[in-house]
Structures are given as C-alpha cells and as structure tokens.
Amino acid sequence: MIMDFSKFLDENFDIKEWVNAAFKSQKDPTVKKDQYATTMVMKLQMFIQEVNNVIEEASQQAVQNLPRVIREIEAVKQEASLLQDQMRMVKEDIQKVEHDTSQSMQMLLQLDNIKSRMQAASNALKEADNWSTLSADIEEVFDSQDINVIAEKLVGMQQSLQILVDVPDYKDRCQHLEKLKNRLEAMLSPQVVAAFNAKSLESAQVYVKIFSNIDRLPQLYKYYHKCHKTQLLNQWKTIVETNQEETVVEWLSEFYDQMFSTWHTQVQWCSQVFKEPEKIVSQLLTETLAAMEPSIPYCIANFLESKSSPLDALMEVLQVSERFAKSIETALESHAEGPLGSEYSATLAMAIYAPYRSYVQRYENYEEAALSTHLNNIPLDKQEVMDSVRVLGESVNKLFSAANKGNERCLKLTHGCGYISLLQALKNYFINYGKEFRRVLTNLREKIKMGDNDPWALFQHSLRIIQTCGELILHVEELDDSLMSNILHSIGKQTPSTPKIGGEIRLRVNPFHQYTELLIEKVEDREALELLVTKLEEEMPSVLEVVKKDFSALSVDAHRFAFDIVFAQIKEHLQEVSTMEIWTSASAGGALTADLPTFSLSPQEYITQVGQYLMTIPQHLEPFTTQDNPALLVAVKHGKLPYTEEQESFEQIADLWLESMARGAMHMYCEEILKIPEITAHASRQLVTDIDYLSNVLDDLGLQPSETVKNIETLLKCSKDNFDEESENMPRRLVSVLKGMRGL
C-alpha cells in the first residue's frame, strides 16, 4: 500500500479529502476497511516518529553550531568597522587632492577648449580650401555630363558650406550652390521624367539618391506628380469628351475607378522608391482633383441646371464621391499603423469634398426652394366648406412628409452640417403654411356668412379643423425630437473638437469623418453649429420652438373660429335684448299685474332659445369625445377657448366647451342688460324670471352663474329701501347702471 504524504505540505490541506483519497486508492477487495484503517494509522504513527527524529537531530545540530556562528558574526563586524575606517581615509585623501589640484584641472579645461577651437579653425580652413578647389573644378565636371560626379562635387560643396556659416560671403556662396543645383536639376529633368513615365525602378532609385543628397527631394516629388497628374488629367478629359450623352455621375464614377486603380499601382511602385509612398500618392490625387478641366464644380453646376430637383441630383453625385472617399479611406487605413490622422490624408479628404462646400453653404436656399415647391402643391382650400376642411386635414401628412424628407436629405447630403440651414428653412416652411391655414380660416368665415348653412354641421367641421391643429402640434413635436436626436448623433460626436493652431487642419478624428471641416467653409458657421450642439447637450428644450408657438397660436385661432360659429346663434338671440319694448312698455305692467307673484311669469322666448341651445351642445361634441382622440386633446391644451382660464389638464372637452359657451352667453347677456336705459317694475320681475331660467339651465349643465349675473338679479329683486345695503360690495359701474335703470 503506497500512501502520498506530500499532501500534508499543501497550504490548503484537507484531512477529509486525504482520507477519502487514501481509501479510494485501496483496490484489494480482500482487505477490509477496518483492517485498512488500522494499517493507515500505524503507518501515520511511524511517519510521525520519523519526523520527530529528524526534527530532534536538526535541533541538536543547530545548538552545536550556534557558538561557531556567533564567532563568525563578531569577525564580520570587526572587518566592517575596519573597512569603514579605510573608506573615511580614502575620502579625506580625495578631498585633499581636489583642493591641491583644482587650479591645474581648470587649466587643463581651458587648454582643451583652446584645442577644440584650433581644431575647428583647422577644419574651417580645410573646408574653405576644399570649397575653393571644388568651385574651381565644377565647370569641368559639368562639362563632363557625368551626373554622379557632379552630384558628388555638389555634396562636397554643400558639406563645406555647412562649416563656413560665419564667413562674410556665406549668402553669396549659398546662392552660387543653389544655382549649381538648379543646373544639375535641369540636366536631370528629362531623364527623371522619362524614368517616371517608363516606371523604371533602377533609374528612379538613382535619382532619389541624388536628389536626396543635394537636399532636393521635394523637387523630385514634383516631377513624379507632374508626370502622373498629366496622365490622369488626360484620362478625365477623354472620359468627358467621349461620353457627352452621359452625365457627371457616370463621368466621375469612371474617373474615380481609374484614380483608385492608380492609387494601388503607384503605392506599390513608390514603396520601392520613396520612403513615404502613401503620402506621395495621396498628394498626387489631391493635386489631380484640384487641376481637373472641366472642373468637378463646373460639371455639377451644369448637371443641376437640368434637374427639377437639384437636391436629389446633388445627392446622386455626392454618393459617387463618397464611395470613392470610402475606398481611399479603407486603402489608407490598410497601410496605416494606427488610426488615420496624417495631414496628407486630411488634405486628400478635403479635395474630394471640396466641390460640395459651396452647396452646403447655400443649403438653406436649396431646401427653402424644395419645401416651398412642395407647399405650393398642397391643396388647402376648396369651393365648399366641407371640402376645404377635408383638404386641410389631408395636408398634415403631406406637410410633414416633405419636412421628414428634408431631415433625411440633410443627413445624407451634409452629414448634419446643414442643420442650422435646414432649421431656418423648416421654420419659414411651417410659418408660411400657418399663414395659408389662417387665410383658409378667413375664407371659411366669409363663405359661412354668405351661405345658409346648418350651424351644427359647421360646428362639426370646425372641430375637425381643431383636430387638424392638434395633429400639426403632435407631428411637429415628433419632428422636433427627431431633429434634435439627429443633430446630436451626427454632429455631436464631431464637436467640440480641438481648435485650430496656426491654421492647420484639425486632426483629432479620422479626417474622412470630420464633416464639419470637410463641408463647412466659414469658421463662424462651424462655431454656430458647435454652439447648437452645446445647447442641445445642456438640454435645450426644442429646435422648432418658433414653429410650436405658431401652431399653438393657430390652435387658438381655430378655437376662436369654432367658438364664433357656435356662439353666433346665442349672439343672434341676445343682441337685441337691450332694445326690447317690454322693458319700458306701460301695457306690459300696470295695477293688474304689479301684485302678481313671480312664479306666474314665464321666461321669454329669447332666453329659452339660448337655454335650449346650450343644452344641445354636449350631443354635438359626442362624436369627438366618446373615442380616444389625442390630436383633439393636444389642440385644446395648446389652444384657448374664449371666456375660459388657461389650464394644463381638464377632464372633459365637452365640459370646457359648455363652460366657454355659458360664460360667453352670460357675459353678452349682462352687457345687453346693462344697455337697457330704463325698466318698469313689472319688466324687472320679468327680467328676474329670465335670469332665473338661465341659472336653472346652467345648474342642469353642472355650471354656476357668474358673479355679474347674480349681482344683477339681486339688484333687480331688492326693494328701493334695501338697494344701497345690497349693493355695498358690488362693482360701482354695475350699481350705477342698475340704479339709473330702475329710476332710483
């Protein structure tokens, strides 16, 4: 039986786990568990005894070695003390030497400086002599036409000139050397152009070395750019001239394909010649895009002139350019070690998007024209009232369909950079719609005056107009949320960005995605856009606040329109109350009727008609209030019925209308009563009866008469003796008029 005692050394030793493992390792079925356990205990005891023996032996050995260890420690301490004394002595010796030899060391330093200056002077004299020698031989070297020897001589002169910075004629020598370099460059230029045209690697590598040695490598890049730029420009010209029946969309698509192919082939070739192939080829494409003839802006302008929808046509062209930009971006990223951020990639991106900057600057004009055209095509008025109401309702979806398309266009065409322009265009668009809406309301008023229409049918139509106003408000709130979200998601992630330093392009993000730089020309326009984003991030409530206020005012106008329609019947019954003969007629009163009780009088026809009219209002509102109608609720919330208080919430629209009509009726009724010049005693009792009837109708409708109605009734009922007492806390105008009316 083999037992593993190494487990006892584990830090997380578990006795139960060890015992179970020991029993599991026992495979002999003939051995009982008790017998096996006894054997295990015996082995453990033997192991413990063995460990005890080892510990005892180690302890005895440690005790025996302890005196020797103590002696060795004492010896080490003595040696350390001796070493410390020796180091102190060495330090004192060093300080003494420094003190005694400081003047000598200073002299040595001065001598070393003199030696260095003499060496520099010697080198300068040698280089001056070398310059003179090279200058004397340079003409012969140029006559030899050996470009390698010429380049070597010019490099030697260049090195000499670096030593001769302080000579009086240094500038003249620099100018002379530059002229010699120009001569060499002129000699090489035909060969360089031929090498680049032939794509000769060996020749190009030789010229790179020569131009690099004479500090003219940028000039070599210019020769390279000129050669390939000429080829690309000729290809563009051929595409345009041979495909006259096509448009700039097809021209650019084909030319961009050729440029992208050039990118790959030239980067591969340049990587064997130049140190920064991506930069050099990117600069080639940038220069080509700027030198195209006819230019891209010219071709785009001609293309847009022939289109009825310039914005859609512009998006079509932009999509072609953006596909090319995306391809170039991907190609640059495949060669870049990290995220794109180089200046040459930013410059190339600017060149690709440059033709569209002027259109983004004029984006507001284009959007206004598109929206205005759409608005002019939306019918808002018809000959019949019912048809006008219907087309007003249908106009809402058409109105916002165009606005939502404008929102989508702004994202696709300007990547959010045109949102300030779009917001202004939308504001004008909706304000103009509001003006047309009000014009239709005015026309409807005139048609209603001229026609013989059922007032309740007109009321139903007016409620539909109010519902249309609610739909306008709901849609504009939805559009407002969409606009704010799009602005933050498109422009918000680009701003605020690192400010420009020295006019250099900001490279904080991938330059192909920095659309505020690519598409916005003026700094103040970028700052305005950044300010808008900042306000939205600080929880600016709305970007269409002006439109919301106008639509709310439109709802108020629609409510007034509907109120006037319904109230016209009440007005018709009440407008002649003050001139009725009953108030002054002697035959209406007299001795026979003066003492009759009030209940013997009946309300007059005018007031019963008003009461019956008020009682019918709820049933005509029922079709609009029995079903869920969020548009009507929103319209009522933002609109305001005459003679009602502004309130955030209300239980029933019908109650609000009843309150408005009743308050309007009471107000007009009171004004008409106060116009009565004089009234007989019997007429006073009749008027009180009329007022009581109206109060009862209001009570049936769950409403209360106004304070003015109550005061008039009180002053009509009271006796002459109690008049002053009853009128003590009432408005002076009311008291004065009633007093004069009753002849008190």
From TrEMBL:
Topological type in the membrane: Peripheral membrane protein
UniProt-annotated location(s): Golgi apparatus membrane
Residues spanning the membrane: none
InterPro entries xrefs: COG7
GO BP terms: Golgi organization; intracellular protein transport; retrograde vesicle-mediated transport, Golgi to endoplasmic reticulum
Gene Ontology CC: Golgi membrane; Golgi transport complex
Coiled coil: 66-100
Pfam families, alphabetized: COG7
Domain of life: Eukaryota
Keywords for the protein's UniProt record, in alphabetical order: Coiled coil, Golgi apparatus, Membrane, Protein transport, Transport
Family: Belongs to the COG7 family.
Name of the featured protein: Conserved oligomeric Golgi complex subunit 7
Organism phylogeny: Eukaryota, Metazoa, Spiralia, Lophotrochozoa, Brachiopoda
